[in-house]
Amino acid sequence: MTSSSFLLIGFIVYNLAFLMFVIAILGRKWAQDNPIEHTRKWGNYAIGATIIGLAGHAGFFFTRWYEAGHIPTSNMYEFMTFLGMMIIVAFIVVYFIYRAPVLGVFAVPIGIIIIGYASVFPKDVQPLIPALQSYWLKIHVTTAAFGEAFFAVGFAAGLMYLLRCVNFDSKEKGDRKEQRGVEVTIFSLVMIIAFVISIFGFNASGYHARFANDVLYTGKDGVEQTIKQNVDYVLPPIFKPFEGEQVEMKPFLGMTEAPFEAPSWMKGSNAGRKLNTVVWSIAGGLILYGLLRLIARKPLGAAISPLLKGIDLEDIDEISYRAIAIGYPIFTLGALIFAMIWAAEAWGRFWGWDPKEVWALIVFLYYAAYLHLRFSKGWQGKRSAWLAVIGFIVVMFTLVGVNLVIAGLHSYSGA
pTM of this prediction? Predict the structure, then answer.
């Protein structure tokens, strides 16, 4: 069995586990004779399925490791699938501490979304570049991802808290601001889902477009020369690369050429494709969000909120805080301390203000501020939940935005 088969099995079982968690929470309305027993039984089924899915996911990880000859965390596909696995592990750890099936309704889908997002990247096994040929790859990336996984669980619990306590019926200015904040957070998740659906859809249809750019290349002899570099698009090109030449393009809704060109400051063969991806993500998110709003006939936050009635807010607040408190020292070790040791070995310096280094430091300082405000200022409840939600958004920008948008020494990798 190939590594991709193991991942597919894990992905399918994760989805089944999510449905079981939903039944555990929503089904208690119909089990009026013994709702607590219903929740406990289906919660056990769901966590069992989650563990089975994790076993399939682990099969992918170790099979891929065997196929590649190195730990599979060296590019965006491998790292994001590994992060998805760590989110599930972190959720299972927190679940067995608190026994809260409702957390699975929010935490497991985050792992599913991350795995789905990973699948849009090239899946080919690639040899390690020289900078990654170190045992520190195993130590740095795995510990950093494990810490970030606990931040994801903290985010899930924080979002649950906000959905439970924000007054979606109020017209007060402060309440309206909170309603918009929750809705923006939900839209961000919907946008990622829409992007993944778009990629799968166009891949299935065989859509393809290609552009060529002149790229300045310096050979081993030090002589500079201009070469043509092809850029392949899976999504229909709304923006072509700056000064890019169209090589081929399948028509889409009558569109036979890209209507716009990436701005001049977005030079580089991949800049136009990245801008195109952002535009498609936002457009797809708006369409999917609009459809869901039509079905719900109200903001999605207001539609989800009643389903969480009966959830103990203090328990959810505690889960969010504990998850972040567990993840913070792990992240600090992996993303900062181990990373600086590896940087000293690979590049001869502990710190170089590379964009990824800077954003890892921002994440470290952000969660340090979270814990300080929690301990010293008594920021619990709603304020703590907002910090947990915003914090994971910062984490995701560090993982995705910095890697794919900002050029740097870490642009080749997923960590």
Answer: 0.88
